[in-house]
Amino acid sequence: MSAEIYKSFFTGERKVFFLLVDPEKCRGDLLKRTAEMASRAGVDVILAGGSLTSLPIDETIITIKSITNIPVVLFPGNLLQLSTRADGILLMSLLSGRNPEYLIGNHVLASQFIKRSGLEIIPTGYILIDGHHLSSVEYISNTRPIPSDKPDIIVATALAGEQLGLKMIYLEAGSGAHDRVKEEIVMQVKENITIPLVVGGGIRTPGDIRNLYKAGVNGVVVGTTVEEDYRILPSLTAIRNEFQLM
Ligand code: 1GP
């Protein structure tokens, strides 16, 4: 297993900007324009995937790679979203849920494919937090999110993920969440874990990103707001640049 992407983005105090591209929602000319803008804006990593899509993810990745050298990492919502065209995979275990298929079942089915794929594996503890709307992840995975006013449970879940040997924790409020993960939760989780912390779901503005970076997240994942208007990308990655200069 190579560890190029993980190592290059998670050494020291570096802040990372992940752009989520959902093949279902971003295709054709929009995908091309988004990839061009991502390249210009200096997006660090493109995550490819989503809760629902069963469209051929290979096509999405081939298009992205014809336009930019940004590493593409799979963010698979299901087994149809595996591809050898990507550079890596967030191998996510849905730690907040109690659905065995999303904790280990799908991983067993995918293991030989992933072994032969050469994809860089980033074992990730994926924790769904209530974003005050029914998220696609909650519905599709048939799991309940952790209430956002139960930071002790969120912290304990993230800590258990680190103790199991996972390499990254991803706090997810769900795509298009009304309420993103709050700074207080980020700070408490950061105090308790040593592995990188990434946050996504409902992050829309430069201010959101600045506040989350300040609270200690290593990376933010942004999808919906860029799907709505990809031209905002430079204003979002500019916040990451502010932190690199510090
Ligand atoms: C969803 O965290 C990602 O899995 C991104 O969320 O679409 O709300 O930016 P948004």
Give the secondary structure arrangement, pairings included.
Layout: H1 4-9, E1 16-21, H2 28-41, E2 45-48, H3 57-67, E3 72-74, E4 88-94, H4 100-117, E5 120-128, H5 136-141, H6 151-163, E6 168-172, H7 183-192, E7 197-200, H8 206-215, E8 219-222, H9 224-228, H10 233-245
Parallel strand pairs: 1-2, 1-8, 2-3, 3-4, 4-5, 5-6, 6-7, 7-8
Helix pairs in contact: 2-3, 2-10, 6-7, 7-8, 8-10
SN-glycerol-1-phosphate is lined by residues 20, 172, 175-177, 200-203, 221-225.
Which terms would index this structure?
246 residues; TIM Barrel; 8 strands; binds SN-glycerol-1-phosphate
Write up this protein:
The chain has one domain (4-244): FMN-linked oxidoreductases (TIM Barrel, Alpha-Beta Barrel), CATH 3.20.20.390. Helix content is 43%, strand content 17%. It has helices at 4-9, 28-41, 57-67, 100-117, 136-141, 151-163, 183-192, 206-215, 224-228, 233-245; strands at residues 16-21, 45-48, 72-74, 88-94, 120-128, 168-172, 197-200, 219-222. The longest helix is centred in the middle third of the chain and has 18 residues, at 100-117. The radius of gyration is 16 Å and the shape is globular. The mean pLDDT is 96. Bound molecules: SN-glycerol-1-phosphate. SN-glycerol-1-phosphate binds at residues 20, 172, 175-177, 200-203, 221-225.
